[in-house]
Amino acid sequence: MSAENNSNTTPQWICGKCGSPLQIEAVNLSYLGSGYPVDLLVCRKCKRALVPADMALGKMLEVEKLLEDK
Amino acid sequence: MNPDCAHCLYFGSPNENHRPFPTNRPGGLEGTRRALSYCSLPARANVVDIACGKGATVQLLEETYGYNAMGIDLSGRILQEAKNQSIVANLVQGDCVHLPLQNETQDAVMMECAFHFDPNPMTVLEEMRRILQPDGYLILSDLYVRTGEDIHPVQQHSTSNCLSNIQTRSRIVEVVESAGFTTRIWADQDDLLKQWIWEMTFSGVSVRSFLTSLLGEDCGGGTNATFPKPVSLGYYILVAQKKIPIKN
Fold first, then answer.
1. What is the CB neighbour count within 10 angstroms for residue B36?
2. Of A7, B16, B17, B143, which has fewest CB within 10 angstroms of its CB?
3. pLDDT of A43-66, one tens digit each?
4. What is this model's ipTM?
5. Which string of DSSP letters, residue by residue, matches B24-60?
6. Alpha helix (H) ranges present in A1-70?
7. How many interchain CB pairs under 8 A, A with B?
8. Which residues in chain B have their CB less than 8 angstroms from residue A66's CB?
9. pLDDT more than 90, % of chain B
């Protein structure tokens, strides 16, 4: 994935595999048999989603640890 | 309610956004539907929901199941919120150890994710038993301690908060049976608890810091603290029936 930055607009994420622009879609995140729908940037062609680092290292990591503790 | 207890403070927060339970409890109304599926209640059954909050369960009981439902909650503020939001449900302020109901008038009494609030569960159960008809249903859903059967690890780590009242399965069943009920169903609701963890976390509430704060200073406190290893929580639905006294 890469971000194209026009000076006055929000960066537009582009799929690194096919070059299509990413669009926000509900993605069902799942782990250890349970899941939750989260809005993420998705390549509709390749069906790949971009998980922001702060989400991966924040909420997703916390859920992982809590589910593993159970 | 303990004014020094993080659990109570979260639940009692005047700001809805600061409450830890977006759906008030693991499973929300799905948990209620599951619990009712374990019972055989008559049409227009009298059902009372204790610690009803703003009456979501009472509305479900009335509108979906056609029961004659009533909700009782200790908090006048929450009941006022329900009134302000024009929630149509029969909600009454009352204490679970002095229920404003006649003896043997209810077909079922429910308590969802609130049983562990009270440090004297036997007193609560005896009051529930008083208002239930013979064979009436007791329906509980709540957190429980999964680790070990005969230890109370949460109590070992804290003595001053509501979570310290959470018990093991064997202890909960024991106290229910001692209060004059026969346990019919114990159903582990692991999936509802897992879903609740997702919902809580992604709605901006740190489950870990919330629960850790309840465990007191012994576990280190703060958002990065870890649970004491022996503590593992589960969520259950228990359905029991009032024992009919044997006449001599």
1. 23
2. A7
3. 999 999 999 999 999 999 989 888
4. 0.78
5. SSTTHHHHHHHHHHT--PPTT-EEEEES-TTSHHHHH
6. 53-57, 59-69
7. 41
8. 197, 201, 207-208
9. 50
